From TrEMBL:
Organism: Desulfoferula mesophila
InterPro entries found in the cross-reference section: DNA_glycosylase, Endonuclease-III-like_CS2, HhH-GPD_domain, HhH_base_excis_C, HhH_motif, Nth
Bound cofactor: record note: Binds 1 [4Fe-4S] cluster.
Keywords: 4Fe-4S, DNA damage, DNA repair, DNA-binding, Endonuclease, Glycosidase, Hydrolase, Iron, Iron-sulfur, Lyase, Metal-binding, Nuclease
Protein name per UniProt: Endonuclease III
GO molecular function, a single term: DNA N-glycosylase activity
Length: 229
C-alpha cells in the first residue's frame, strides 16, 4: 500500500501539507486526550529499566515483571552490584533477557560512576549508556523529565508512513523528519497518541480503516478502502 513501506532513499517524497498535519494533531487530541506511557514506574531509573525491557516485549508483560524486580533491586546501586545470572533470571520472561540484563547492569554501573547515581536528563548523556538508543532516551526524557521527544517505535513508524508524514523506515531518520513537521511541545503527547492509535486501530496486518478517526486525513486508509470496493 502507498505510504506504508517507506522509501529509504527519501527521493520523491513530498512533505505533508501543514494544514493536514494540524488537522491530524487536532483529531489525535480528540481521540486520545489522556494517552500516556503504558509502562509503570516511580522514578526516572525505573522508567529507563522498564523501557529497556519493553524491547520486543509487551508493556503488559514488563509491568508484570517490574514490581518484583524493583523490590529485589530497589535502586541504581543495587542493579550495578547485581549478579548477572540472577538479573538475567529476573527478566527472563521479557525475552532477549541476557542482552537486557547486561544493558541494565551496564547502565546502572555507568550512572553510578559518571552521574553520581542519577539518571542524566539530556539525550547526549543518555544515549552513551549501555543499551540506550534514541528511542529509549526520548521515552525517559519525555515522561520522566518533561523534555519533549518523539519516540519512533514500530507503531509510530507505521502510522506516520501511512499518514505520509514521512517515508523513512529507519527510526532515527523518521524521528528527525517528524521533528520538522510536529510542533516541539507536542512531541511527547504525539508519540503516546500515535502509539495508542497503532495498537488499537492502525494494526500492521488488518488496520481498521473504516473505524479510524484519522481516515479523512490518511492517504493509506483512503486507498486501502478504495481497493476493497
Amino acid at each position: 500500500m502507498a505510504g506504508d513501506k517507506g522509501n529509504k532513499s527519501g527521493r520523491g517524497f513530498t512533505p505533508p501539507d501543514p494544514a493536514r498535519v494540524k488537522a491530524v494533531l487536532a483529531a489525535l487530541n480528540k481521540l486520545y486526550p489522556k494517552a500516556k506511557c503504558a509502562l509503570n514506574y516511580r522514578t526516572p531509573w525505573e522508567l529507563l529499566v522498564a523501557t529497556i525491557l519493553s524491547a520486543q516485549c509487551t508493556d503488559q508483560r514488563v509491568n508484570q515483571v517490574t514490581p518484583d524486580l524493583f523490590a529485589k533491586y530497589p535502586g541504581v546501586a543495587d542493579f550495578a552490584k547485581a549478579g548477572l545470572p540472577e538479573l538475567e533470571e529476573a527478566v527472563r520472561s521479557t525475552g532477549f533477557f541476557r542482552n537486557k540484563a547486561k544493558s541494565i547492569k551496564g547502565a546502572a554501573q555507568a550512572i553510578m560512576e559518571k552521574h553520581a547515581g542519577q539518571v542524566p536528563d539530556n539525550l547526549d548523556e543518555l544515549v552513551k549508556l549501555p543499551g540506550v538508543g534514541r528511542k529509549t532516551a526520548n521515552v525517559v526524557l519525555g515522561d520522566a523529565f518533561g523534555v519533549p521527544g518523539i519516540t519512533v517505535d514500530t507503531h509510530v513508524g507505521r502510522v506516520c508512513r501511512r499518514l505520509e508524514f514521512t517515508d523513512q523506515t529507519d527510526a532515527v531518520k523518521a524521528e528527525f523528519a517528524l521533528m520538522e513537521i510536529i510542533p516541539q511541545k507536542r512531541w511527547t503527547p504525539f508519540s503516546h497518541q500515535v502509539i495508542t492509535h497503532g495498537r488499537q486501530v492502525c494494526h500492521s496486518r488488518k488496520p481498521d480503516c473504516p473505524g479510524c478517526g484519522l481516515l479523512k486525513h490518511c492517504p493509506f486508509g483512503q486507498e486501502h478502502l478504495a481497493d476493497q470496493d
